[in-house]
Amino acid sequence: MKALMFGWEFPPHILGGLGTASYGLTKGMALQPDMQITFVIPKPHGDEDQSFLKIVGACNVPIVWKDVSWEHVDYRIGRQMHPDEFFHYRNNIRYDFRRIGTNELGCVDFSGRYPNNLLEEISNYEAVASVIAHAGNYDIIHSHDWLTYPAGIFAKQITGKPLIIHVHATDFDRSRGNVNPEVYYIEKRGMDAADHIITVSNLTRNIVIEKYHQHPAKVTTVHNAVSPLEGADEFTKTKRKDKIVTFLGRITMQKGPEYFVEAAHRVLEKTQGVRFVMAGSGDMMNQMIHLAAKRNIADKFHFTGFLRGRQVHEMLAESDVYIMPSVSEPFGISPLEAMQVGTPTIVSKQSGCAEILNNAIKIDYWDIDAMADAIYSIVKYPAMYKNLREQGRDEVNRITWEAAGLRVRAIYDKVMSY
After folding, report:
1. pLDDT tens digits for 93-140?
2. Where do the CATH 3.40.50.2000 domains begin and end in the chain?
3. Taking a C-beta distance cutoff of 8 angstroms, is the pair 227, 202 a contact?
4. In 3D, which of 95, 105, 111, 198 has the Cα closest to residue 149?
5. pLDDT score, position 173
6. Rounded CA gap, 127 and 107, in Å?
7. Using CA atoms in the order 90, 94, 95, 99, what is the torsion angle rounded to 10 degrees?
8. Which of 138, 199, 348, 370 could bridge across to 205 with cysteines, CB 3.0–4.6 Å?
9. Confidence bin at 52 (pLDDT 50/70/90)
């Protein structure tokens, strides 16, 4: 089974949960002996793990024919793509994309991020997808998140192969309902064109059915999982008197950071032996700094900035409580990562992971008093802390990407049997 997957980010260079989920799912699927995955991202860095799949950088695929030598191609991109592969792609340019700005190789210089001209990059990525689709032989097309839906649709049109779209989030989640019509159009068009839709939770599945008017039989939930953490016991807490409660994620309205700050204020009205950490970055960071100051708890609050790789697990392990107060979270992998290192976890009921976790405390994101009570109970009652720590770790270690991969493969087989 040869799958052509379109994604937007891949570890170790990630900006959110999409890259983490893409890595975990593909690695889990690669355990199936006949599974061959080609994973396209806008701009690889060359240090991605390709032991279980093939990474293709859209920035290295020519869309405009340029007269360049083998030696120059090798000099420019040889560390990421063999020149013979480059020329194979160049021989499969079938459309006139000269309207798109390209470099001397005929390639698009993608940012590899989420720039201000994101819609332009999505369109350029779609052009690259046409070349890749013409150049290869695949059994199925799989597009991760809305940014890659146009690429998946074009590849389906070219190859005639089934298209699976994977909904990791919708604009209803990201915007608290203030939906961008251009983004909604791309999402809706992708869902309409798909042969099947995978959602990361039943919460997201219901949004897809109700807000995007998709038939329920066309939409299947495959919950995310968490990659095994090697050396989990190496992550330990520093001996200290104060307890640490952590929020880790993008500091944006979707993640509910203001509810975390308000809950912190409630806790600190009852006890002073607790410190709060907000780890991450986002457009609401300055607002949260000011809110902490307004509530007179700035001396108990720490802002770390964006964390990546081992830093994430170190911060989670250092914490006595992890909390994810998201307003609308399609899944949320970070609570599972916290539980892996034995950190008791509180999640909002408005999150997909709440559907599969039994050993995490679940609260409504807006219920600041319940959130504060849960934090207080964990940091003040050792028996509760110990139970959540041990039971949570045991539970999360049974939630595997291999199982998720088998469910996705069953969807592949079903769609290809039509």
Report:
1. 999 999 999 999 999 999 988 999 999 999 999 999 999 999 999 999
2. 2-225+401-416, 232-396
3. no
4. 198
5. 87
6. 11
7. 10
8. 199
9. very high
Amino acid at 315: M
Average pLDDT over residues 242-267: 95
* Structure confidence by residue, pLDDT tens digits, 22-51: 999 999 999 999 999 999 999 999 899 999
CATH fold label, 2-225+401-416: Rossmann fold (3.40.50)
Residue 231 has a pLDDT of 78
Q: Are 63 and 42 in contact (CB under 8 A)?
A: no
SS3 track for 213-262: CCCHHHEEECCCCCCCCCCHHHCCCCCCCCEEEEEECCCCHHHCHHHHHH
For 203-239, the pLDDT digits (tens) are 999 999 999 999 999 999 999 999 888 777 788 888 8
Confidence of residue 402 (pLDDT cuts 50, 70, 90): very high
What would be the CATH architecture of the domain defined by 232-396? 3-Layer(aba) Sandwich (3.40)
Tokens of 281: 């970055």
pLDDT over 90 (residue 319): yes
Angle at the Cα of 6 from the Cα atoms of 418 and 411, rounded to 5 degrees:
30
Place of tokens 């949570």: 392
CA distance 284 to 398: 35
Burial status of residue 418 (CB atoms within 10 A of its CB: 0-12, 13-18, 19 or more) = exposed
Tell me the residue type at 85. E
Could you give phi then psi for residue 56, rounded to 5 degrees?
A: -120, 125
Distance CA 187, CA 341 (A): 36
pTM: 0.92
Residue 343 pLDDT exceeds 80: yes
The residue among 110, 111, 112, 73 whose CA lies nearest residue 90 is: 73
What sign results for the dihedral spanned by CA atoms 127, 132, 134, 135? Answer: positive
Q: Which ranges in 320-400 belong to alpha helices (H)?
A: 334-340, 368-380, 382-396
- DSSP per residue over 272-332, as a string? SSEEEEEE---TTHHHHHHHHHHTT-GGGEEEEE---THHHHHHHHH-SEEEE--SSBS--
As given in the structure block, the two tokens for residue 396 are 């999360």
CB 226 within 8 A of CB 404: no
Cα–Cα distance between 222 and 219 in angstroms, integer? Answer: 10
